[in-house]
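Posting here for the record, re: magnesium ion.
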Amino acid sequence: MRALRSTTELGLAPDFQGKVREIFDLGQQLLIVATDRISAYDVVMNEVVPGRGVVLTVMTLAWLDFFRDVPNHLLTADPEAFPPRFRCLRDELGGRSMLVRKAQRLPVECVARGYLAGSAFKSYQREGAICGIALPPGLSLAQQLPEPIFTPATKADVGHDENIDFAHAARLLGDADAAAARDFTLRLYAAAARYAAPRGVIVADTKFEFGRVGGQLVLIDEVLTPDSSRFWPAGAALPGREPPSWDKQILRNHLDACGWNRQPPPPALPAEVLARTAARYHEVLALLFPAEVTRWRPFLS
Ligand SMILES: Nc1ncnc2c1ncn2[C@@H]1O[C@H](COP(=O)(O)OP(=O)(O)O)[C@@H](O)[C@H]1O
Ligand SMILES: [Mg+2]
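Prediction output follows.
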């Protein structure tokens, strides 16, 4: 497998470079390429995790297929069907790229939580509630919630997203879209958590994005990946402490042991840390979607 740090290595000039993804604006469509970059504590590392972008993309494709009754942005992930300048890079882009319909993004990140972690736990400690939803007293970090909750957030241009209550989301989206986004989010989360649990993966929480294409509300962006979700190994979630992150724990442990101050530039990473991290991504994909590992093997190994 070829690792990819940036599509610029392939002679391409993306219109947008996120921390991980690079996007080509084709007018009505976007080509979204997931590179093998990885960030920790919001800083992008110098090294890449080979195949990470393929795992994130293949997992998104598998969930989109799982939720095939929900309208989504995907046109094709078959590199043979990409426009010519991308088609000729099919070996490099295959498995990590999606041609999608360009949507008008809803300005709200749609988060579902089944467990208490991250900013929700901090908010709970402060005020016993998250996004205006009161929670029962006495809950611990990493504890399962009585039922999954919808905790929308606004996407901050810099810094962390800001949690908002449903009424605020409804002001931003309108009542109908806010209700639709909430209902989709909770339904998709519940189905995904139910699918993943017997396979050894707890989906503690996840973030969806929705957009509008024509008159239709569609699911966009990545779906239920380790980057957009907290995946915990089943059995490792013990109320009271932060469970190990499925994918980034090895990297975080290494960075913490280095004494890095979490400001750029990041320290150089040993090949062993990168290889073990890559193995974690392959592992979670194999647990959730073993058939996809076979199907995408040429791009995964
Ligand atoms: N179909 C789509 N139409 C428009 N924007 C999209 C679509 N799918 C994903 N996006 C946007 O593309 C970007 C993906 O890039 P990413 O590297 O994940 O950036 P970010 O750091 O903002 O998460 C996100 O801003 C997401 O909202
Ligand atoms: Mg993103």
